[in-house]
């Protein structure tokens, strides 16, 4: 851990590297109590920098390195002595004597005690690596920055019995027994130049499933997924997802895979979802393993999406990579956009859009409004690991999506073709991406680029006016941007906001959209480009006052407001031709109804629910022609976290009370319709073997949401149905929902029994036990914190495993809001203690778990004081990692 004050790094200070590394030859000798890393780097002066220096003396070579024990250094074949180099806690500096040279280093490292899960570490007995963003410097001295791209050759040696499988990037070129008894080695060569963050190494006792993929130019690619032996029966879904991804990227983006082999390795201890290392993706086992009995539908869909995401990085990230870490969204925003498109094509596009937007609005909007708010391309950071954020990923994907909307499918494809062609093998910037889009389409995105530099969620207030005599209808848009750290709102310039929209007449028919000055219209849906702070669009030939449908498909990541009344929202719910907006109208209606009840609760009045919401949802529920997944989405009330996000001052108790009251009302009033749909779908589930496909997901989702509502009625037949579903389901989707409804119910004996049976059946499956922890951590019944504390003592729990921390602590602080925000501050104290503990051994996870406390400004003054005090206590708790230091100090600033 660093003890010196962490320092801020700025985008404006970017300079190209002084030296380049053409070839990287690595040798790893893995042992139980240490490992040795020998690196031979074939280097030369960066001509670009030499030109700038105009023949001056050669600059020193400063290599990154952390937690390395230096054993030897050779420069141009001459052994250096300590007088010849400078060593600090994060660098090694030598003075080259010529433009081209080789540098040889040997270091000793300790993967066996690496708990930060960055660099080379051990997970469940196997060796694995995580180098993004700056983990490679914990493996060897290097120019650990993405604009230094090198050809890697890697030799790994280890005990043959314990580590029969030895993997690295690229192709296996040689292998054999070592001279030393019981050991063996393998050499891998990656023909593609890559930055160090894409390096990977794996050594372990692994089994694999294998398949092949024939590319569009008829090349055969070997596909292997490596897992611990007991998990080979849970890889097929990931393999199917991989093949679908490879085909989709050829069909939709014209991108072909480039090596002869593609490998995925599942590891149990992993800080994030997965990592796109060239030819050797390393995955959190939760993002690979899925089969009916142990993984829910949501888990299956997550596996499919993450496999696709990492595979797509082969082009958007690896072949074309980032110049520096400020450009992270160049690869992440774009790749999320690509994986969303893939998931939309594999499943229901509307449902995928609804889920993405609900997530963005709840979590990214909250980030954008909090102390860590930053632009899609940040301009400074202390610790880059803190910037793998919802803003860089999800908002970054929305920004790419707006480009897609503005250019259309074909224009966008022309842009990506040019981008890949122009920059293949290069490390580039977000500006280069935009430039390719502009050049391929002959457009000017100068103003659009503000999305990359201005932080915060823009507001877009819309008003209308109808002129009966002229038969014109006008929409006026007023945009504004909030103040975010370092960026006053009033200094922000207008964004380009694509607003997809339509107009509905009194029958719900879509009107042709003709703007003043345009030729007669045929289209009934179009995209308005809002580019000014205030701008009016006037439609002509509008025979009657229409109802606007705005921001269809959520065409821009903004907070749009239009003064709809509840009847208008109900009308849109039924008639809007845009599925996303039908859902959104329902959400807006629900928000209005819930906000009434939140106000009633605050005034101490009895809660009364607007019956129109019940009527509207009854209509949806009874319409058997609707996609069942859509019905399920419409039936889901906005979450508490979203209601908090849209509050001025969030009253957690009132929000919880209002939402629970609404759920109870819906359950009581819709119970017949819910029961009918539940029974039909449950019967089908009983008759159909599990299939991980869209219409099956839809059926089970509706079945399960119906069950969750029905359980609130407390009827004995519902309890019996839940128990039956728990006991007899052949899949985790039904079983886990049954468990969850029991856990959240007042039926203590049934609950205890189900929890016990579940734990007994699945005690050997860590990922299933994560779900068992999560269901309990999320239960909003009183006493939540005590239950979580007790679960931390469970033998299956360990703080050292990030999935466990997320399953128990993350679920409690992120989803169990009524308990986490207990008025006595006990939830805050608990979380702060854990962050302090985690900071000592896994800074990345510590910093991520801290997020809920950073939102303290959202709450009432008593809670604010409690949360702030905990942040201050963390700050004073001793030497902090740069990760935690950055988040805590910015939160208190
Ligand atoms: N590039 C990874 C992705 O696909 C992100 C990632 C994986 C990561 N592991 C990490 C980032 C560890 C930081 C630290 O999104
Ligand atoms: Zn990614």
TrEMBL record:
Question: What positions belong to coiled-coil segments?
Answer: none
Q: Which residue ranges does the record assign to the Peptidase M1 alanyl aminopeptidase Ig-like fold domain?
A: 456-561
Report the residue ranges that make up the Peptidase M1 alanyl aminopeptidase C-terminal domain in this protein: 567-893
What GO MF annotations does this protein's record show? aminopeptidase activity
Ranges where the Peptidase M1 membrane alanine aminopeptidase domain occurs: 238-451
Catalyzes what? Release of an N-terminal amino acid, Xaa-|-Yaa- from a peptide, amide or arylamide. Xaa is preferably Ala, but may be most amino acids including Pro (slow action). When a terminal hydrophobic residue is followed by a prolyl residue, the two may be released as an intact Xaa-Pro dipeptide
Instruction: Provide the cofactor list for this protein.
Output: Zn(2+)
Q: Which SUPFAM superfamilies match?
A: Leukotriene A4 hydrolase N-terminal domain (SSF63737), Metalloproteases ('zincins'), catalytic domain (SSF55486)
* Aminopeptidase N-like N-terminal domain span: 83-198
Q: Is-annotated flag, keyword Metal-binding?
A: yes
Which UniProt key words apply to this protein? Answer: Aminopeptidase, Hydrolase, Metal-binding, Metalloprotease, Protease, Zinc
Identify the CDD domains for this entry: M1_APN
In terms of superkingdom, the source organism counts as Bacteria
- Per the record's keyword annotation, is Endoplasmic reticulum included, yes or no? no
As for family, the record states: Belongs to the peptidase M1 family.
Q: Which NCBIfam families match?
A: pepN_proteo
Protein name, per record:
Aminopeptidase N
- What organism is recorded for this protein? Pseudomonas lutea
The gene for this chain is pepN
């Amino acid at each position: 851990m660093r003890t010196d004050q962490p320092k801020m790094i700025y985008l404006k200070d970017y300079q190209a590297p002084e030296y380049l590394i053409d070839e990287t030859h690595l040798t790893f000798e893995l042992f139980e109590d240490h490992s040795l890393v020998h690196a031979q780097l074939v280097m030369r002066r960066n001509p670009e920098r030499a030109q700038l220096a105009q023949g001056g003396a050669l600059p020193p070579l400063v290599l990154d390195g952390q937690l390395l024990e230096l054993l030897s250094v050779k420069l141009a074949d001459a052994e250096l002595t300590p007088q010849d180099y400078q060593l600090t806690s994060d660098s090694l500096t030598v003075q080259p004597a010529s433009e081209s040279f080789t540098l040889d280093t040997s270091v000793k490292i300790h993967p066996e005690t690496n708990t930060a899960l960055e660099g080379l570490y051990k997970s469940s007995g196997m060796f694995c690596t995580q180098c993004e963003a700056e983990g490679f410097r914990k493996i060897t001295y290097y120019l650990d920055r993405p604009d230094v791209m090198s050809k890697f050759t890697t030799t790994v040696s280890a005990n043959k019995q314990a580590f029969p499988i030895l993997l690295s990037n690229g192709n296996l070129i040689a292998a054999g027994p070592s001279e030393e008894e019981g050991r063996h080695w393998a050499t891998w060569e990656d023909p593609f130049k890559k930055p160090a963050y894409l390096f990977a190494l794996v050594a372990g006792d692994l089994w694999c499933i294998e398949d092949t993929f024939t590319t569009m130019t008829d090349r055969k690619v070997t596909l292997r997924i490596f897992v611990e032996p007991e998990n080979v029966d849970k890889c097929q879904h990931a393999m199917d997802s991989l093949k679908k991804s490879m085909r989709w990227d050829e069909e939709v983006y014209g991108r072909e895979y480039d090596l002869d082999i593609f490998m995925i390795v599942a590891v149990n201890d992993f800080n994030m979802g997965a990592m796109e290392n060239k030819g050797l993706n390393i995955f959190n086992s939760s993002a690979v393993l899925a089969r009916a009995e142990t993984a829910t539908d949501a888990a299956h869909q997550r596996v499919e999406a993450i496999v696709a995401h990492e595979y797509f990085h082969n082009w958007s990230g690896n072949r074309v990579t980032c110049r520096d870490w400020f450009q992270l969204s160049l690869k992440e925003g774009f790749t999320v956009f690509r994986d969303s498109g893939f998931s939309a094509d594999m499943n229901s596009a509307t449902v995928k859009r609804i889920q993405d937007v609900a997530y963005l609005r709840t979590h990214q909007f909250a980030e954008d409004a909090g102390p860590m708010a930053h632009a899609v391309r940040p301009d400074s950071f202390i610790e880059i690991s803190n910037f793998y954020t919802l803003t860089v990923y999800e908002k970054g994907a929305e920004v790419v999506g707006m480009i897609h909307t503005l250019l259309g499918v074909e224009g966008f494809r022309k842009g990506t073709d040019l981008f890949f062609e122009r920059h293949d093998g290069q490390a580039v910037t977000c500006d280069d991406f935009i430039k390719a889009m502009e050049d391929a389409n002959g457009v000017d995105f100068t103003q659009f680029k503000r999305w990359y530099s201005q932080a915060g969620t823009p507001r877009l207030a819309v008003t209308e006016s109808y002129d009966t005599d002229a038969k014109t209808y006008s929409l006026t848009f007023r945009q504004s941007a909030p103040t975010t750290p370092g960026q006053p709102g009033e200094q922000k310039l207008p964004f380009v906001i694509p607003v997809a929209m339509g107009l509905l007449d009194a029958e719900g028919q879509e009107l042709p959209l003709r703007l003043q000055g345009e030729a007669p219209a045929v289209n009934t849906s179009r995209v308005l480009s809002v580019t000014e702070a205030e701008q009016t669009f006037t439609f002509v030939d509008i025979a009657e006052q229409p109802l606007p449908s705005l921001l269809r498909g959520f065409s821009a990541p903004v907070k749009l407001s239009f003064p709809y009344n509840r009847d208008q929202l109900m009308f849109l719910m039924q008639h809007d031709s845009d599925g996303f907006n039908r859902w959104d109208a329902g959400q807006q209606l629900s928000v209005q109804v819930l906000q009434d009840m939140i106000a009633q609760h605050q005034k101490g009045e009895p809660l009364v629910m607007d019956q129109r919401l019940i009527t509207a949802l009854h209509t949806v529920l009874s319409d058997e022609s609707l996609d069942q997944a859509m019905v399920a989405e419409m039936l889901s009330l906005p979450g508490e976290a979203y209601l908090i996000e849209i509050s001025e001052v969030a009253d957690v108790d009132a929000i919880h009370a209002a939402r629970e009251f609404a759920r109870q009302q819906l359950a009581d009033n819709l119970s017949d319709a819910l029961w009918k749909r539940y029974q039909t779908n449950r019967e089908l589930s009983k008759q159909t073997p599990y299939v991980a496909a869209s219409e099956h997901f839809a059926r089970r989702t509706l079945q399960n949401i119906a069950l969750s509502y029905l359980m609130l009625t407390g009827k004995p037949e519902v309890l019996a149905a839940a128990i039956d579903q728990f006991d007899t389901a052949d899949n985790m989707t039904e079983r886990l929902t049954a468990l969850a409804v029991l856990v959240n119910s007042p039926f203590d004996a049934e609950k205890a029994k189900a929890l016990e049976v579940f734990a007994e059946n699945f005690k050997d499956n860590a990922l299933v036990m994560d779900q068992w922890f999560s269901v309990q951590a999320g239960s909003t019944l009183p006493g939540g914190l005590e239950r979580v504390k007790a679960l931390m003592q469970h033998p299956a729990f360990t703080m050292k495993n990030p999935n466990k921390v997320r399953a128990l602590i993350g679920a409690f602080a992120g989803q169990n809001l009524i308990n986490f925000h207990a008025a006595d501050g006990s939830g805050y104290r608990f979380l702060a203690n854990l962050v302090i503990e985690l900071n000592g051994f896994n800074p990345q996870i510590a910093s991520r778990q801290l997020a809920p406390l950073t939102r303290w400004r959202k709450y009432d003054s008593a809670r604010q004081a409690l949360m702030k005090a905990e942040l201050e206590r963390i700050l004073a708790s001793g030497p902090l990692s740069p990760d935690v230091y950055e988040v805590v100090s910015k939160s208190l600033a």
